[in-house]
Specification:
- It is a single chain.
- By secondary structure, the protein is of the alpha/beta class.
- It folds into three domains: 108 residues, Rossmann fold (3-Layer(aba) Sandwich), CATH 3.40.50.2300; 63 residues; 153 residues, Heat Shock Protein 90 (2-Layer Sandwich).
- A five-stranded parallel β-sheet has the order 2-1-3-6-7, sandwiched between helices. It has a five-stranded mixed β-sheet with strand order 9-11-12-14-13, covered by helices on one side. A two-stranded antiparallel sheet has the order 4-5.
- Helix 4 links the parallel strand 6 and strand 7.
- Helix 6 packs across helix 10, helix 7 packs parallel to helix 8 and helix 8 runs antiparallel to helix 10.
């Protein structure tokens, strides 16, 4: 950065004679023009720095309202970008050197000041300060790049970890249904004549269930991938929400064989609404499956659906093993499984899918739990009313 055509200098000096002398010295410069503004006290100088722009400061360390290095700090704090040249007497050189170490660009002994030394010190001071600023900006840019690169590396490490967990999970969770298919199909092929009709039907059902489990796992993985790519969007259509929820619970009851009791309760007036059935199915199905999975046999699961003015609230409460406070912080991360469920099978994808679906819905999901005392998940989804209902409400508001 080049020097200004006119260098504006703030001189902080209480001795009027020395101030006049420095002004006259600068007037003698031929290659550079200077404009000198004089302040007798530190406070006067700080005031001028608030409403005027300067290129450099000449600072006497002996002022009526400030002495020594105490004069330097307030100026550096107020204008860290401005270069400072300290003016000192013969017996103050140690103090002047300390001032340079504290942030001043240079110092001049008053008795030795000439036009050449003064101009050179001012110009060099400005140039050094500009170089410092460029180095500081370059360091800041470098630090930012290092920080960004570090974040990228951490994300890459996290992604590699997720990939590793994903491969491990797939190999484990696909192996079980594949083994079931292989075993059942092998028995049907090799021992078909020895098997009763009921046994054959049983093995066919096992194969069908194993295929369904694999298909469900693939669907969950694909849904997470779609969500991470930002392609999971809500598609609303009219749905009878009461019938929809009753159907989900009825299908679960078929597989429960009375091992758990699911109580469904509706609160509020459920008028015609728009819903995304796929997102809602994933939310409710995963939460209910978890409530069943982590509750003891004979446990009760309460499902409460509350219609509020601007949102529908789904509360699913179980009497299961509960979730620790530590685990709750990571509960919605893919593949995460709490440390108290090691003997219960699962992929660790269910709650991650719930969160992604709720986010696509622009809603919110909350969890309340204590170890051994059950868990309550609360899902809040904004209401989506058909256009005809919105128009009717607007007319009612206008008429009232």
């Amino acid at each position: 950065m080049a020097l200004s055509s006119v260098i504006k200098v703030l001189l902080i000096e209480d001795n009027l004679a020395e101030a006049r002398l420095l002004n006259e010295v600068l007037k003698g410069a031929t290659r550079q023009e200077f404009q000198l503004i004089h302040a007798k006290r530190l406070q006067d100088a700080l005031s001028k720095l608030e409403d005027q722009i300067f290129d450099i400061i000449l600072l006497d360390l002996t002022l009526p309202d400030s002495q020594g290095l105490d004069s330097l700090s307030p100026i550096i704090v107020k204008t860290p970008h401005l270069p400072i040249v300290v003016l000192t007497n013969m017996n103050d050189e140690e103090l002047a050197l300390e001032a340079v170490r504290k942030g001043a660009q240079d110092y001049l002994v008053k008795r030795h000041i000439t036009l050449d030394t003064l101009v050179r010190s001012i110009c060099y001071g400005i140039e050094r300060k500009q170089m410092e600023e460029r180095l500081r900006e370059a360091n800041q840019a470098l630090e930012k790049r290092v920080e960004e690169r570090t974040i990228q590396l951490l994300k890459a490490q996290e992604l590699n970890q997720l990939k590793s967990e994903f491969v491990s999970m797939l190999s484990h969770d696909f192996r079980n249904p594949l083994n079931t298919i292989l075993l059942s199909s092998g028995l049907l092929e090799d021992s078909r004549d020895q098997l009763t009709k009921e046994q054959q039907v049983y093995y066919f059902q096992m194969i069908r269930q194993a295929v369904q489990d694999m298909n469900q796992l693939l669907s969950e993985v694909l849904l997470l991938g779609k969500a991470d790519a930002g392609k999971l969007k809500a598609n609303f259509e009219p749905i009878d929400i009461k019938g929809f929820c009753q159907q989900i619970i009825a299908s679960l009851n078929l597989s429960l064989e009375n091992s758990h009791q699911i109580n469904l309760e509706f609160q509020g007036n459920f008028d015609e609404e728009l819903w995304d059935s796929k997102l809602l199915w994933h939310i409710l199905h995963n939460l209910l499956n978890n409530a069943i999975k982590y509750s003891p046999k004979g446990g009760k699961i309460d499902v409460k659906i509350i219609q509020e003015e601007n949102a529908t609230v789904f509360k699913i409460k179980d009497q299961g093993i509960g979730i620790s406070e530590t685990a709750q912080k990571h509960l919605f991360e893919p593949f995460y499984r709490a440390d108290n469920i090691s003997n219960i099978s699962g992929t660790g994808l269910g709650l991650a899918i719930v969160r992604k679906c709720v986010e696509a819905y622009k809603g919110n999901v909350l969890v309340e739990s204590q170890l051994g005392q059950g868990t309550t998940f609360t899902v809040i989804l904004p209401r989506q009313q058909p256009l005809t209902i919105k128009i009717e409400k607007s007319r009612e508001q206008l008429s009232s």
